[in-house]
Amino acid sequence: MKKLTLSLLFLVVLIGCGPEILIAPIINGAVYWLEGEAQKYYTQDTDVLYRATKRACLELQHSIETDEHEESNYYIVAGGNNRFKIKIRQVEKGITEVRIRVDFMGDKPYAELIYKKIDDQLSVINFDEHGRPTRQNRIIQ
User: Fold this and answer.
1) What is the pLDDT of residues 20-53, one digit of tens each?
2) Do the beta carbons of residue 22 and residue 12 sit within 8 Å?
3) Which helix (H) or strand (E) holds 21?
4) Which 3 state secondary structure label does DSSP give 4?
5) Contact status, residue 92 vs residue 44, Cβ threshold 8 Å
6) N or C: the chain end with fewer CB closer than 10 Å?
7) Where in the chain are the domains?
């Protein structure tokens, strides 16, 4: 083992490359993992986006496993086996960020599909049995 390590080190020095040639694949794996989270900004309130996101998940037939709320930030885990992790947070007054991570490494086309469904749900108003618009999550449980 010691001979192999010394031979490898000698080869690296002989070729003129630094040790980064050996470390690069490991670093690239970490970078892709960190970049596997899609994000999109909206000009709506966080509560509006929270309700639209829940409706979009239900429209795509994904059950909501975890639904946490802290001040004006929301965290939703949807789909089986922690498939989607969605974070909704207020960046500034009137600007909300929605971050979606699909699986472990991310899936950009599927995240774009979820964003499209959220966009479609932004203009939807739910009404109760008396024809009055509902607030909060009375309809979505």
Assistant:
1) 555 555 444 433 445 678 888 988 889 889 989 9
2) yes
3) helix 20-34
4) helix
5) no
6) N
7) 38-121
Q: CATH fold of 38-121, please?
A: TATA-Binding Protein (3.30.310)
- In which residue are the tokens 């001979």 written? 3
Express each pLDDT in 85-104 by its tens digit: 999 999 988 899 999 888 87
Q: What is the pLDDT of residue 4?
A: 65
Three-state DSSP state, 39: strand
SS (H, E, C) 59-109: HCCCCEEEEEEECCEEEEEECCCCCEEEEEEEEECCEEEEEEEECCCCCHH
Phi/psi of residue 17, each to 5°? -90, 150
pTM to 2 decimal places: 0.67
**Residue 3: burial class (beta carbons within 10 Å; 0-12, 13-18, 19+):** exposed
In this model, does residue 64 exceed pLDDT 70? yes
- AA identity, residue 81: N
Only one residue has tokens 């899609």, namely 38
Q: Show contacts of 111-116: CB within 8 Å, 24+ apart.
A: 111/38, 112/38, 113/60, 114/56, 114/57, 114/60, 114/84, 114/86, 115/38, 115/40
